[in-house]
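User: Structure please.
Assistant: Input sequence and predicted structure:
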Amino acid sequence: MTTPPTTTGAPPLEPSCPRCHAEIGQAHHERCTVARCLATGLQRTGHDEACRCPNDTWAGLWPGAAECIEFGWLYGPGLPDLNRLMATATWDPVTHRWIHPDNHTTSTEGEA
């Protein structure tokens, strides 16, 4: 019997959003402060009301935490460096995720 691999630094998934209590895969409530604008990656509350971005859903981790874990940007186990993410990564509005600064292209660049 083998032991399944573990993801270093990954905190356990939270079954529901700590603010609006949306469950994994469910859309955040309209005024949830955790929800992100999928056009900009920034906090959805208070964003441009003309923005027609789709609703953000709860994924079990704080927004940006998965990318911090992927990039190795952690203060310690389970503590993503979200400040570094916001300061150095680029939001891709097509894939709805942060792109590492070493990956200079987004999914919209280079398309004809």
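The chain has two helices and four strands.
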